[in-house]
Design brief:
Helices cover 70% and strands 0% of the residues. The protein is built from 13 helices and no strands. Helix 1 (8-21) packs parallel to helix 3, helix 8 (126-134) packs antiparallel against helix 9 and helix 11 runs antiparallel to helix 12 (219-236).
Length: 259
């Protein structure tokens, strides 16, 4: 590095490292040096925007990203960065539009997909979010996250909770069987089986209904499946934030429960 201190790229690479580490004072110094060396460089504008974003100066960050969109038409990183900033500013309608533009050019961009669904969540556009999440490829590194988000939409967000939504949620979670040991998978599975158990206990679960992962949809079998899933979650997550709720749900569905 000492042999290349005059290089803009060197200072910007250092700035990026400092931004990632949260060392914003050092990052600011490196960006300032790069600005003095090459004030008209698009790279400097990009990292200036990233620095502003990291500092929480979202208006200034958005201005830099818009400047880049004008200077580099068709480039996706500034478009996606502006979408991210709009979401942070609670301008989710703009964020959705920008993320959709990114995905038109790069349909497999999972970071854009997850950002898009976050904004759709805030706008309560549940059906649109489902369509987007279903587009995530099984080969994607974010496939597990996408399936867990599908469960979240079907079980926790769409109201009222319907038989079809429980069925869809069970399919989303069953698709992860054998693919992950993520504790969230077991918690989600427990929640899906518990939702089905609640309806079965109330006599509202048709005998023809299919719950992926279980062959017996009697209240006792669903309760046992939910209990086991919660138990697996608690084994893997030693200090869960909602431990009391999970333990309460686990006790509620236990087949041996007498009250």
């Amino acid at each position: 590095v000492s042999n290349n201190l005059g290089s803009v790229d060197t200072h910007l690479r250092l700035a990026e490292v400092f931004i990632e580490q949260g060392e914003l004072t050092q990052a600011r110094a490196e960006v300032s040096t790069a600005q003095r060396i090459a004030p008209n460089s698009w790279k400097v504008t990009w990292y200036t925007g990233k620095l502003f974003e990291a500092q929480g100066d979202l208006i200034a960050a958005a201005n830099r990203y818009r400047e880049l969109m004008g200077d580099l038409p068709g480039e996706l990183p500034p478009l996606q960065a502006l979408a991210r900033v709009c979401a942070k500013q609670d301008d989710d309608a703009s964020a959705v539009s920008l993320y959709q533009d990114v995905l038109k050019a790069d349909p497999g961009n999972t970071e854009a997909i997850l950002g898009l669904t976050d904004s759709m969540y805030k706008l309560q556009h549940w059906n649109d979010a489902v369509k987007v999440l279903r587009s995530v490829s099984e080969s994607s590194a974010k496939y597990v996250d996408a399936q867990l988000r599908l469960y979240d939409v079907y079980i926790k967000r769409m109201k009222p909770l319907t038989l079809q939504n429980i069925e869809h949620a069970s399919q989303a979670i069953y698709a992860l069987r054998g693919r992950t040991e993520d504790s969230r998978y077991y918690l989600a599975q427990g929640d899906v089986y518990r939702a089905a158990w609640q309806l079965a206990r109330a006599g509202q679960l048709p005998p023809t209904m299919t719950i992926s992962g279980v062959s017996d949809i009697s209240p006792r079998a669903l309760g046992a499946a939910a209990e086991e899933s919660y138990q697996q979650y608690l084994r893997r997550e030693q200090h869960p934030e909602a431990r009391e709720t999970v333990v309460r749900n686990k006790l509620e569905v236990s087949p041996w429960r007498l009250f």
